[in-house]
Amino acid sequence: MSFDLVIFDCDGVLVDSEPLATDLLRQAFYEEGLVLTLNEVIAHFVGLSMAEVIIKAEKILGSKFQPNFLQNLQIKTFSAFRQGLKSVTGVKSLIKELQENEIKFCVASSGSYDKMAVTLEVTGLDIFFQKNIFSVSEVARGKPYPDLFLYAAEKMEIEPARSLVIEDSIYGVRAAVSAGIEVMAYSVRGEDKILQRAGGLVVHHMNEVTKHIFS
User: Fold this and answer.
1) 214, 211, 215, 205: which is closest to 90 by C-alpha?
2) For a disulfide at 185, which of 102, 115, 124, 195, Cβ 3.0-4.6 Å?
3) Per-residue pLDDT tens over the stretch 159-197
4) Phi-psi region of 47 (alpha: psi -120 to 50; beta: other; left: phi over 0)
């Protein structure tokens, strides 16, 4: 089918932020007394909003984090992004193809607006999206619930059934499926089977997304 709207997740789909962010999150957990491997951090927390991350992590730890946990983590994360963050390989070419074919596109992320402002500016992707950026802070429930993707489609004035989501997390794939939106799962962490079982069409490069849209 053809699509009238492509909805991008941000971290791990537009910007290659996951390796930096997840390792910093693992270190921050360790400083609070929560010892997890990097794979455990990825499995449990990638794709969730920071509010949900903290709730889930504190439940595992059995106690509350320090009040400045989120502030300190954000300072370290933004600093790391400004020093070496890159866009995901092939995503700029995909966006330009969408522009040339007059297909709408936007971002719908579990990240905050502040975080997306940094990541999109550093990678030079901000010029493509401008005001078509939507955060979990705008809806009642985050991923894996469908609220954010339905909200983005509504704001872009496109029916969910005419949309395509590009995600890289299990929570994001489940959210798209719940919204009744076709979803392509960008897999770079060896999670092909998990993402496929959740309902995602697994791809490993953005040129596969381009072929799917324009074939």
Assistant:
1) 205
2) 195
3) 999 999 999 999 999 999 999 999 999 998 889 999 999
4) left
What is the CB-side half-sphere exposure of residue 173 using CA atoms within 13 A? Answer: 21
pLDDT above 80: residue 199: yes
The per-residue pLDDT for 190 is: 86
Closest CA to 171 of 126, 110, 118: 110
Q: Which of 94, 112, 101, 87 minimizes the C-alpha distance to 166?
A: 94
Distance, in Å, from the CA atom of 128 to the CA atom of 114, rounded to the nearest integer, reads: 17
Q: Which of 145, 124, 119, 129 is nearest to 21 (CA)?
A: 119
The tens digit of pLDDT for each residue in 27-57 reads 999 999 999 999 999 989 988 889 999 999 9
74 and 110 both lie in a single domain: no
User: Are 12 and 103 in the same domain?
Assistant: yes
The answer to whether 195 and 185 have CB atoms below 8 angstroms apart is: yes
Under 8 Å between Cβ of 107 and 14? yes
Question: Residue 15: beta bridge partners?
Answer: 11, 87
pLDDT greater than 80 at residue 151: yes
